[in-house]
Write a sequence for this structure.
């Protein structure tokens, strides 16, 4: 039987402490709230016990943050889109931030197994005065395990309505896209790190974020397959192609840490779950 799991997670500030409350239906939930940085930032781990999606499965994730709250969300491991007999596996995430809210959306990678039929959709709505740092990482197959992405399709959709849209469909049969130097160039990991604000960001602030990303890029082995841009006054994006996940994730973490320090004067508080 296919799973249809839902999670609603809401952050709000209570007595100078960010508090998370959630409700769920099906195998999708968060673990306890953690405060490694003190009461201001609430860290949560999103858990999907089945460990992956097959054809017919749907995950609906709805996140909202109220004025003054600051949440950080990650996962304990990769998401997985397994082989399908024809039905679609779908993950939908909707994030809504009220004025004055902050959120960090930092899930680990999504792995597309050969034969999957998958869609991963992320929608971000940010009110004026709210800000978000997030990332999206996709791995096509498991090259190190000799499990290439030989069949199937994957659609990725990232949207800030009316501001920014990235949408692409990967078909394992499209060898030009996968191998061409103007496509993925043989790489099997695609990653994006993004800063989204609810109102135009001052040019000097955007330039500072771009400069930090480009400085870290210069020292990265992925220098030739990554770049930082500001496609809209409310968005700054770092895009990365890599042969496998690990170097891409290392670069994203470095830039994320630099950005949260620049934007919010917060140290690099790595979620504890990443060390396990």
């Amino acid at each position: 039987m296919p799973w249809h799991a839902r999670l609603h997670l809401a952050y709000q500030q209570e007595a100078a402490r960010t508090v998370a409350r959630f409700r769920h239906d099906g195998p999708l939930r968060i673990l306890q709230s953690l405060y490694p940085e003190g009461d201001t930032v609430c860290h949560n781990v999103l858990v999907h016990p089945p460990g992956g999606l097959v054809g017919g499965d749907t995950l609906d994730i709805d996140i909202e943050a109220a004025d003054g709250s600051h949440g950080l969300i990650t996962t304990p491991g990769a998401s997985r889109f397994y082989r399908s007999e024809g039905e679609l596996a779908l993950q939908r995430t909707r994030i809504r931030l009220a004025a004055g809210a902050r959120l960090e959306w930092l899930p680990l990678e999504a792995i597309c197994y050969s034969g999957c039929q998958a869609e991963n959709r992320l929608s971000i709505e940010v009110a004026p005065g709210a800000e978000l740092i997030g990332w999206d990482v996709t791995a096509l197959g498991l090259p190190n395990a000799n499990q290439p992405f030989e069949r199937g399709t994957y659609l990725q959709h990232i949207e800030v309505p009316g501001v920014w849209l990235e949408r692409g469909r990967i078909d394992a049969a499209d060898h030009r896209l996968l191998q061409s130097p103007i496509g993925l160039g043989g790489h099997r990991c695609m990653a994006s790190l993004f800063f989204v604000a609810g109102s135009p960001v001052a040019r000097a602030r955007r330039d500072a974020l771009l400069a930090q990303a480009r400085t870290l890029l210069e020292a990265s082995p992925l220098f030739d397959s990554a770049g930082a841009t500001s496609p809209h006054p409310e968005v700054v994006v770092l895009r990365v192609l890599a042969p496998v996940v690990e170097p891409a994730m290392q670069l994203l973490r470095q830039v994320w840490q630099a950005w949260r320090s620049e934007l919010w004067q917060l140290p690099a508080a790595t979620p504890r779950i990443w060390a396990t």
The first helix runs from residue 175 to 179.
